Amino acid sequence: MATKKQLLRRLDEIGASLERRGDALLLLGVGSVGTELERIDEYSDLDFFVLVEPGAKEAYLECLDWLEEVYPLAYQFRNTDAGHKILFEDGIYGEYAIFEEEEFKQAKYKGGRIVWIKQGYTNQGIGEEGGSVKAERRQSLDFPLNEALTNLYVGLGRYARGEKLSAARFVQSYALDSILSVLHLLETEEPYFRDVFGEERRMEKRYPHFAERVGDMMLGYERTPESALQILRYLEEVYPVNPRMSAEIRKLAQGL
């Protein structure tokens, strides 16, 4: 864990390291170290992109001396073809990706902030635009809420045959994901840093009324039937649930 000052200083230090190398073009902070600096807290980490000259990418991925000279690394894991997850010795955690200019046009991000840019590099606008971001939201209740309903039915069937892990995922994960995708249609959303990559992020502040109920919908591995009944009650409150499906789900849950 680190303070806001420590995180931002570390990012500036990475920018200085890149400047010394000569073949880097731009350092872009994203996430909470992007344009949403006001939401940084003690649990925030470093998310950043590095734009490099053609042919330089692999050198940055194979040898992390450009990070080690800023502060020693305690852990590093190459999680994609383009980057690593890292932990510095002082406890600062980060995730980053390296791009060449043509690849960078396809990078998906929101709220990028230029931390450092090479003197004379003229394509500054590249840091202000993200690639197409997959929309998590739907604009109609019909598909997602019926999908949630069938997730309950299938999940309870799996629970009945002893497939408790699969059941928990269908009921307490997949069904809830469908509800989250249309929660903006069911409850007034409080304006608090929506994340376009995941509707579950900061849900507690954005949808406080639903947040009061969601705990009863996720009661754990051994309590999938009770969780399913709580989700079914919610669905019935907000949508004209098919009565036969509702009855079948209740019969399954109450018989377990």
Shape: elongated
Structural class computed from helices and strand pairing: alpha+beta
**What do the pLDDT scores average to?**
89
Q: What count of helical segments does DSSP give? A: 11
Q: What count of domains describes the coordinates? A: 2
With strands numbered from the N-terminus, the spatial order across the biggest sheet is 3-4-5-2-1-6
Low-confidence stretches: none
Organism: Paenibacillus spiritus
Protein name: Nucleotidyltransferase domain-containing protein
Give your account of this protein's structure.
32% of the residues are buried. The chain starts with a helix and ends with a helix. It has helices spanning 4-21, 57-62, 65-68, 101-104, 142-160, 164-180, 183-186, 203-206, 208-214, 224-238, 243-254, and strands at 24-30, 46-52, 73-77, 83-88, 93-100, 113-117. The mean pLDDT is 89. With 256 residues, it is of the alpha+beta class. Strands 3-4-5-2-1-6 form a six-stranded mixed β-sheet. It is elongated, with a radius of gyration of 23 Å. The chain folds into two domains: 4-128, Beta Polymerase, domain 2, CATH 3.30.460.10; 142-254, Up-down Bundle (Four Helix Bundle (Hemerythrin (Met), subunit A)). This is Nucleotidyltransferase domain-containing protein.
